[in-house]
Amino acid sequence: MEISIQKAGSLKDLPDESELAFGTLFTDHMFNMDYDLDNGWHNPRIEPYGPITIDPSTMVLHYGQSIFEGLKAFKTPEGEIQLFRPEQNFTRFNQSAHRMCIPAFDEEFALRALKELLKIEKRWVPSAPGTSLYIRPTIIAMDPFLGVRASYTYRFFIILSPVGAYYKEGFNPVKIWVTEKYVRAVPGGVGEVKTAGNYAASLYAGEEAHHKGYTQVLWLDGVERKYVEEVGSMNIFFVIDDEIITPALSGSILSGITRDSVIEMAEKWGHPVTQRRISIDEVVEAHKAGKLQECFGSGTAAVISPVGQIKYKDKTLAIGDGKVGSWARKFFDAITDIQYGRTQDTEGWVHKVD
Ligand code: COI
C-alpha cells in the first residue's frame, strides 16, 4: 500500500527539552488509516496532526472498543533515530485487536508507516538525557451506532509526543499503595490487553492512592486478592534474598516488552528471573525478615522505576533506604544504553529509522 503524505503548512516551535513532561505535547504530523468491510485497512496517510471529527454516536465513545500501544524513538550520540523492539509492540497490538474483535492489520506495514512518519518528524526526537519521542499507535471503533456489537469500521492512528520522565520522581524511588478493595482484572477478562477500559477501571483506586500520598496502585489478583499482579502502568519485580521474582503472566497481567527485556538480560547475566505467583504476604514476610532487598517496576513509559515504599493495610514497607537498588540501576543502565545507542545492541532489539 502506498502511504500518501500531506505536509503541515506551518510547523510548531520545538519545546525546551529540559522541561519535557509526559504526554503533553504533540508533533506536526500523524499517521491515519481506515478500515471498512469492503476495503479492509485502506487509505494510509500521513497528515498534519489535528482533531478527529466524530459523530456523537461513534461506538468507541460508548462501548470503549479501543486499543493502543506505547513505544519510543531515541536519538543516538551520532544523531541517528532508533526504535526499541517495535515489532514486539505491533505483534502485541494485533493480539489486543484480536481480543477486542478489531480486524488484524499488517504488522510489517504498520512498522514501515511508523518509520515514514518518524522520518518526517525527526526534528522532534529530543536528545536531552532521559528524553525520547513517545509513540502512541491507537485503533478506535468508528461506526455511528448504539447497539452493542463489534464495529464494522475503524480508525488506526499514530501520534508522537516528545517526553521526559513518566513519574515526577524521575528515577528516584516511587511509593505504591496496595488496594485490597478494588481489582483491575480477572481471569478470562481483558487484563493482558492494552485496551482503554483497563485504564478507566484503574482510575478510582488511583485517585485514592494519590489522596493517600502514593504515586500508583499495586494490584492484587481479582479472585483471592492475594497475589501481586502489576502496577497498571508497569510490571513489577521484587528481589528477595538475592532471587529476582516477577509475577508469571496469568492472562490478567500485561505482557510488558520492558519486562521481557529485563528477563532476557538477567538470563544472559546468569541470574535468571523467577516468574511465579508471589503473594503480598510473602512480600510482607520477606520485608519483616530483612530479605526484601529491592522492588522496581518496568514499562515503556517508566523504563525502570525503583519502588521505595509499599503500603499494604496498616503496614508500610520501606525498601532500600530511599536509594535506588543495584539491580534497578543495572537494568536501567543496560536497557537505556541499548535504547540510546550508547552500547552495541547484541540482542538485535534496535531498529534504525533510516
Ligand atoms: C507505556 O508504558 O507505554 C504505557 O502504555 C503505560 C501508560 C503510559 C499507559
From TrEMBL:
Presence of keyword Lyase: no
Highest taxon above the source species: Bacteria
Record-level GO BP terms: isoleucine biosynthetic process; L-leucine biosynthetic process; L-valine biosynthetic process
Molecular functions per Gene Ontology: branched-chain-amino-acid transaminase activity
Reaction it catalyzes: L-isoleucine + 2-oxoglutarate = (S)-3-methyl-2-oxopentanoate + L-glutamate; L-valine + 2-oxoglutarate = 3-methyl-2-oxobutanoate + L-glutamate; L-leucine + 2-oxoglutarate = 4-methyl-2-oxopentanoate + L-glutamate
Cofactor(s) needed for function: pyridoxal 5'-phosphate
Any Pfam family: Aminotran_4
Record flagged with keyword Nucleotidyltransferase: no
Residues that bear N6-(pyridoxal phosphate)lysine: 194
Residue ranges of coiled coil: none
EC number in record: 2.6.1.42
Keyword annotations: Amino-acid biosynthesis, Aminotransferase, Branched-chain amino acid biosynthesis, Pyridoxal phosphate, Transferase
PROSITE patterns: AA_TRANSFER_CLASS_4
Pathway membership, UniProt: Amino-acid biosynthesis; L-isoleucine biosynthesis; L-isoleucine from 2-oxobutanoate: step 4/4; Amino-acid biosynthesis; L-leucine biosynthesis; L-leucine from 3-methyl-2-oxobutanoate: step 4/4; Amino-acid biosynthesis; L-valine biosynthesis; L-valine from pyruvate: step 4/4
Family: Belongs to the class-IV pyridoxal-phosphate-dependent aminotransferase family.
Job description of the protein: Acts on leucine, isoleucine and valine.
Name this polypeptide is given: Branched-chain-amino-acid aminotransferase
Organism: Desulfosalsimonas propionicica
Lineage, highest ranks first: Bacteria, Pseudomonadati, Thermodesulfobacteriota, Desulfobacteria, Desulfobacterales
